[in-house]
Amino acid sequence: MSDERDHYDGQVNFSHYRRKFLKGLAQVGLAGGVAASASGVARAAWGGSTFQDALGDFFQNHYQRMTPEEMKDALARIERNAKRKFGVDITCVDTPPIPGVVFGYALNISKCKGYRDCVYGCIRENNQGRDSQVQYIRVLQMDKGSMNLERSEHYYEPESVPVPGKFYLPVQCMQCDNPPCVKACPVGATWKDPDGIVVIDYNWCIGCRFCMAACPYWARHFNWTDPQIPAEELNRATNYLGNRPRMKGVVEKCHFCTQRTRKGRQPACMEACPTGARVFGNLLDPNSEIRYILEHKTVFRLKEELGTEPKFWYYTDA
Amino acid sequence: MVLAFALVASTQAADSPLPPSDTAAAPVHRQLRLNEVPETPPGPTEPQVFDGYPQAPPFKVVPQKDKLTFYPCSQCHKFMTPNPAPRKLEAAPHPAALQHGGGRIWCLNCHLIDDRDYLHTLKNQKVDFDEAYLVCGQCHFNRQKDWYLGGHGKRAYNWQGERMIYSCTHCHDPHDPVTKPREPHKVPPVRAGLQRMPAADRDLRKVWERHAAKTAETADER
């Protein structure tokens, strides 16, 4: 009896059953001659994480089913993995949505000049792979007087913008209220949060890319390679359903900068925009700027006829 | 003719019976407006001065005065006698030709002649440099209303909480307000190992046009 109690006292820092189980497995792995260290600093043969963390990632539950303790473990694992991979200390948190808030975005295409500052602000803020063609925002150069997206030019590189006779249409995730990508996901790795943001649990994503086929806005991007990010440029303030470092083989997309906007800050693209073309706010607040725009300006949504109910409006002066 | 005259006379009599002839020195008309006309006309009051839009959410302007190179202007101007005559300026810090307003505007339309550290409006408000939007909005009132209410301009730092917005002169040079074309950021990279599709190679015909062309080709072969 007393022996048993001593045993439990020794295990008190591993508070719940799964953690004990995993530690046991790790010890078995050590006994089997596998080069894993319990302290978790050495680079192991299976992709830079210790056996314990690899198993923890493997057995990690879906975001919505994780207990607070499991979430804490998952966040600590993400921080340890980033330390191993990039050599920097990041903080990963799980910011819940703010009650009574539904986010909406409005973009003034009369003001947008095609500078692409938002694209690069987003790349840095959201820890996107630098060479993997994962840009959440694509600025399309369009012929004035036409809305033909097929004739748009994404890779424009003139001496100076705006080019006469063209206008610029930045396209990113529209955070649809009726999101086809969520319907397409076979495993439920993406869903719409109460604040209207369509988020992805990267750990639960199986990389089937059905959502990419379902999205009419080409807003979702697949990590074909491990994202290559210079360590000194890594954004260290990360969020679980946001800009934490992703792995190879998962889909990612714009999440309205959950790590910033759920704490009251602006999304990075809005902060980077020098023209003030972007307006972000709470659709449920009748005094917000975005509500003024929706009520008093000529607004339109992209591919509205598809019934996806995007929460991203374009408007013009006048 | 006589009948019509009688009809008019009878209706007038029915609507407003004529007052006794001794008091009616002036003709009395029916009241033409629905709203009441005040007995005594309002006396001259202070001119109404624009004071923002009441429905606009409260805001503060991001301060800019400390970033101006030559501010305060009175450093130099207190030693100079003011000369209100419009002329071409040649001294160094001032632009020789004012690009704003197509030559119709002269410095002192906005700058206060007595205290160069301030601006003024047409109603003689003394306006701080950080409140330049009150001066700009005298002509650009549509933009100004949008700016107050959030449809124009740029908010700083946050989307909720204290609303800090940039003033007009942060983005627009008031002496040369047109935004110049600028070099864009570099083209986003294509995934490693892939190439961009040149725009010239893209077949911009409609699907049915492509199909028709293809069927025409095969018809020739047959």
Provide the fold topology.
The complex is a heterodimer of chains A (318) and B (222).
Chain A: H1 2-10, H2 17-31, H3 51-58, H4 68-86, E1 91-93, E2 103-108, H5 117-125, E3 138-143, E4 166-171, H6 180-184, E5 190-192, E6 198-200, H7 210-214, E7 221-222, E8 237-239, E9 251-252, H8 258-261, H9 268-272, E10 278-282, H10 289-296, E11 299-300, E12 312-315
Parallel strand pairs in A: 1-8, 2-12
Antiparallel strand pairs in A: 2-10, 3-4, 5-6, 7-9, 11-12
Helix pairs in contact in A: 2-3
Chain B: H1 2-15, E1 60-61, H2 74-77, E2 118-120, E3 126-128, H3 133-136, H4 141-149, E4 155-156, E5 164-165, H5 168-171, H6 207-221
Parallel strand pairs in B: 1-5
Antiparallel strand pairs in B: 2-3, 4-5
The rough form of chain B would be described as extended
Strand content of chain B: 5-15%
Helix content of chain A: 25-40%
Rg measurement of chain A, Å: 22 Å
Number of strands of chain A: 12
Explain what this protein looks like in three dimensions.
The complex is a heterodimer of chains A (318) and B (222). Chain A is an alpha+beta fold. Chain A has a domain at 2-89. Chain A contains 10 helices and 12 strands. Chain A has helices at residues 2-10, 17-31, 51-58, 68-86, 117-125, 180-184, 210-214, 258-261, 268-272, 289-296; strands spanning 91-93, 103-108, 138-143, 166-171, 190-192, 198-200, 221-222, 237-239, 251-252, 278-282, 299-300, 312-315. The longest helix of chain A is centred in the first third of the chain and has 19 residues, at 68-86. Chain A is globular and about 60 Å long. Chain B is mainly alpha-helical. Chain B has a domain at 60-82 and 95-171. In chain B, 23% of the residues lie in helices and 5% in strands. Chain B contains 6 helices and 5 strands. Chain B has a 3-stranded mixed β-sheet, with no helix packed on it. A two-stranded antiparallel ribbon of chain B has the order 2-3. Chain B is extended and about 100 Å long. The model of chain B is unreliable at 1-14 (pLDDT under 50).
